[in-house]
Amino acid sequence: MGGALKDTRDWHFIGGSSIWEMAFEKRFVRAATWACGLTVMAISVTVPAGPAKAQAYTYSATIGAGALLSDPVASAVDIAQGRLLVADRNNDAVLVYDTTTLAHIATIGVVGVAVPLDNIHLNQPSGVCVDAANDHILVVDGGNERVQIYDAKSLAYVATIGEPNVVGIDNAHFNRPASVKINPVAGQIYVADSFNERIQIFDAKSFRYVATLGTTRVPGTDANQLIQPSDAEYNPLTNQIMIADRLNERVMLYDATTLKPLSQLGETGIPAYEAGDNAHFYAPTAIAFDAANKVVLIVDSGNHRVQIYHAQNYKFFRTLGKAGEDGTDNKHFATPKGVSADPAHSRIFVVDSGNSRVQVYTTKPAR
């Protein structure tokens, strides 16, 4: 894979802030950590190149038991504020939980109320992300065709990307946006503009349009085409953008600097149906980079599982859930749609959409 690091990297977490340095071949990259499915811990360590050590993933808790959630679809962790944010689509809100106690502590939007079209209400939010560098929470307000930006501390409204409730194919509009993520190195926002068959890139400070991945309104199977992409996540170990190209049954890998396609995971147009098939996906929906464990987590929604890969080389590592089997116990998922990592508490959050819950796993080195 392009951009693979081959020697030691020093990760310096400066004070209690969200700034990190990555030393590689005498080049330094300074960037804010992010929480769109990942953040990093406030410690100073040196880690060798190569795959993560084997991890034991143990179920530890459920969020949403007792009908508190209704079709949750995405989550993000805000390390600085100690918060888990869950986009609860059918409740038209983002629910905020304490990452220590897992108790509900706040809400963005008005639960169960999608109107009027203003900056207080949300309509079927489909994605959520934390931009720690700019102290912002970004919410994909899917039913209103926009991305809403809030202050990470106060949760007050800040700005909007996209024209509310207006579908379009130019760079000022979306068509059913599905997710939002941050590339902290480039200072960019990635929006999966699903029905426009593209990923839209914006500047994280000015919110101005930067570039497009995919071909607008032209679905297809070649490397420069996508079919209803549902997520785009940054992998800092390879400097790649990982795109959940949902209806192509693949994860596309793009160079984050040149924006050129490099390779892919999965086989285009070939879904996985066999329980032991780890080479294919069935409607991959979301991706998270877990900085603490140096792994990539891919929600293989149609197979009711989360696939875990080494972030350095994308070698398959292990599966959460039972491939091809949905269920309501703690060993199964039902059409999961989101995943995020909380390295401060050694946790993984899987948004188990069909069961209207978030499943919590602890991650520790296997003995």
UniProtKB/TrEMBL annotation:
In the UniProt record, does the keyword Repeat occur? yes
| SUPFAM superfamilies, per database record | NHL repeat
- InterPro entries xref list: 6-blade_b-propeller_TolB-like, NHL_repeat, TRIM-NHL_E3_ligases
Q: Name one Pfam family in it.
A: NHL
Q: Would you say which domain of life the source belongs to?
A: Bacteria
- GO MF terms held by the record: zinc ion binding
Q: Which UniProt keywords apply?
A: Repeat
What protein am I looking at?
A: 40-residue YVTN family beta-propeller repeat-containing protein
Which organism does this record belong to?
Bradyrhizobium lablabi
